[in-house]
Design a protein that fits this description.
Blueprint lengths: L19 H4 L15 H11 L8 E6 L6 H14 L3 E6 L31 H11 L12 H8 L4 E7 L5 H14 L4 E5 H4 L11 H20 L3 E5 L5 H10 L5 E6 L3
Parallel strand pairs: 1-2, 1-6, 3-5, 3-6, 4-5
Helix pairs in contact: 3-6, 8-9
Bound molecules: 3'-phosphate-adenosine-5'-phosphate sulfate (PPS) and adenosine-5'-diphosphate.
3'-phosphate-adenosine-5'-phosphate sulfate (PPS) binds next to helix 6, helix 7 and helix 8.
Amino acid sequence: MLAKAVPRPCSGAGRHGAPAARLWSVGVAGGPRRGGAGGRLVAADAGERMTGSEAVPVVAVAAGKQPVNGSAMADKFLTMCNTWCINIFVDVQSSKPTPPTWSLMEYEQQPGRKPCTDKNGLGIDKLVTSTVGKSTNVLWHDCPIGQFERQELLNQKGCVVWITGLSGSGKSTLACALSRELHSRGHLTYILDGDNLRHGLNRDLCFEAKDRAENIRRVGEVAKLFADAGLICIASLISPYRSERSACRKLLHNSTFIEVYFHTL
Ligand SMILES: Nc1ncnc2c1ncn2[C@@H]1O[C@H](COP(=O)(O)OS(=O)(=O)O)[C@@H](OP(=O)(O)O)[C@H]1O
Ligand SMILES: Nc1ncnc2c1ncn2[C@@H]1O[C@H](COP(=O)(O)OP(=O)(O)O)[C@@H](O)[C@H]1O
């Protein structure tokens, strides 16, 4: 996965060329490059994420103590699903290579970020709902076999575990460890990995803010379908913007969206 350190060509100006110091100039608590690339910036983002009125399950994954432990994570996750506890913490090893600096580009735009617009000045929310809004024949079809019936069949509760964090922080590794462990305990899971989805469903998207927002929106919708199917859907995306993560959370029933923040130091 460290091949990712080589930036991929992508249209749009100014993503790969900015000096590291500029990347760190916005919203960074500790100054350029202190504590390794990425950690300080993520910490700033975490402050934003974990304050306010988001009384929702958040799993904070702190760095520094032991290797990713899918088994411990699965234990805690299943406990959380049963009791609706709010916070759990899993310590993971931080002795990883530094994440590539280009992965921090998106944070440049985070504080005071303007809403995404298309060339006609439409907000992205209007864009994505416009088809149904104008149509008179797009109707919702229900079926007597619903989420409840599927969950009974699978003997589990459909939900979304949303792993967010910098590129290279260990999201995919954790997603895989959790999936493997839940699978071994008889739970049906499915991983939506940002990298993989950009080979197919999201291959038309780039890394500008509006494309990232659309990427996250699509994955949120797909994750919702998997949860509705009764699966434990593990989404692993950088998903740097709080507003987009919140929008995804709102797609799910209360407490069936569990946010995992991968905090690397
Ligand atoms: N700026 C830029 N340029 C080139 N490549 C990039 C860039 N940002 C991300 N990546 C790579 O894309 C992978 C998937 O990113 P995501 O879809 O999770 O990003 S986002 O949620 O839309 O922000 C992401 O995967 P991970 O490293 O697993 O996070 C990277 O491999
Ligand atoms: N807990 C860990 N300890 C050591 N190395 C790790 C750990 N988690 C992930 N890695 C390694 O770090 C690299 C990036 O991990 P990855 O899961 O691909 O991150 P992401 O999905 O966030 O980009 C990989 O080479 C992976 O093997």
